[in-house]
Write a structure and sequence with these properties.
The chain has 342 residues and is α+β, with helices and mostly antiparallel strands. Helix content is 32%, strand content 27%. It is globular and about 60 Å long.
């Protein structure tokens, strides 16, 4: 299982000798999901975890971009030039995605579903094959964006038929916020939620902060660990989760809509988001425009996304980390390749 972050659950479980701990894993959103709860009532913990996993499954089925779902029905309508009626939840979801995409200068754009399909990343298994150059040129000429989506209450339409929505780069973060709300609503105040490497901490484990590891994009194991405060979330975008290789070159699912090609200047970007009602969402959505922005612009994009705690691994393996995040990290191994930026 390729994962963005290493969750250091094993050692935490071994050290737990007081409060009962419940853990359950599942496979949702195309990735591995883990929910760990610490509490005095095991039954309450198990019930809360089950409620979280049911919500994850519902979201997965509702927002799936290529298997039959409410979202694919919307995409079919837009492609036919028709309006579509959506639920209030989906309308709000789309509006929030529009705002986040605009904040990131549309480098993170859930409206590029057709481009994702051209590169073959719409499937669970990837074929090492380049898209037809003419098809890419045609997409660039049209260049549909979620900005072309018109939301009028619960009715949506598009200015361009080429618009295809894919929230795969956004959904895990939203699910973290949903999970936190469910757990707190059921009286769970100490938990750790991991959705394919996007992690949120609630409370602590018997007074000790939850600790997670940031996966090294080219080596086994973490490059650093960090302790999370209550409500904080951390997420990584990397070129090592969904990719294929062809003729010695790696093509990842992180595509720059400006060129219609996968990014090759960055291996990974990690952001740590302070506690807040949208911490999980930002842990997923903010890292992507920073990743795509490039070596000269990633810091400016981090500022634009309001994420001062950020780490970037460049294509050559050089690690750049903001001073604000550096103070929080415990590095593993040699620090010679790490550059701390003010």
């Amino acid at each position: 299982m390729r994962r963005f972050l290493i969750l250091l659950v094993a050692t935490l479980l071994a050290a737990c000798g007081k409060a009962p701990l419940q853990e359950q894993q599942a496979y949702v959103f195309g990735t591995r999901v883990e929910v760990v709860v610490v509490g005095e009532d095991p039954n309450l913990g198990r019930q809360a975890i089950a409620a979280v996993l049911r919500e994850f499954d519902r979201m997965h089925r509702t927002y799936h971009a290529w298997q039959a779902s409410e979202l694919t029905a919307v995409n079919e309508a837009l492609a036919a030039g028709r309006k579509a009626t959506v639920t209030p939840e989906m309308a709000a979801f789309m509006g929030e995605a529009q705002a986040l995409s605009a904040q990131g200068e549309h480098l993170f754009d859930p409206g590029i579903g057709a481009l994702i399909k051209l590169w073959g990343f719409h499937a669970d298994e990837f074929v090492a094959r380049l898209p037809d150059p003419q098809a890419l040129a045609d997409w660039l000429k049209e260049k549909p964006s979620i900005a072309d989506l018109v939301i009028d209450g619960t009715t949506v339409s598009s200015r361009k038929r080429a618009l295809a929505l894919d929230f795969g780069g956004y959904l895990k973060g939203v699910a973290l916020d949903r999970a936190a709300a469910i757990l707190r609503g059921q009286g769970i105040n100490n938990a750790l939620i991991n959705i394919g490497g996007n992690v949120m901490a609630l409370g602590s484990k018997e007074g000790r902060k939850w600790r997670v590891g940031i996966q090294h994009p080219r080596q086994p194991g973490p490059l650093a660990t960090v302790q999370l405060d209550d409500g904080e979330a951390i997420g990584t975008s990397g070129d090592y989760q969904r990719y294929f290789e062809l003729d010695g070159r790696r093509y990842s699912h992180l595509i720059d809509p400006r060129s219609a090609t996968p990014v090759d200047h960055t291996q990974a970007v990690t952001v740590l988001i302070p506690a807040g009602p949208k911490a999980g969402t930002l842990s997923d959505a903010a890292s992507k425009p920073i990743f795509i922005a490039g070596p000269d612009n990633w810091r400016a994009m981090a500022d634009k996304m309001g994420t001062p705690l950020v780490l970037r691994v460049a294509a050559d393996g050089q690690i750049f980390v903001s001073a604000a995040l550096d103070r929080r990290l415990e590095y593993l191994g040699d620090r010679a390749n790490i550059r701390v930026l003010p």
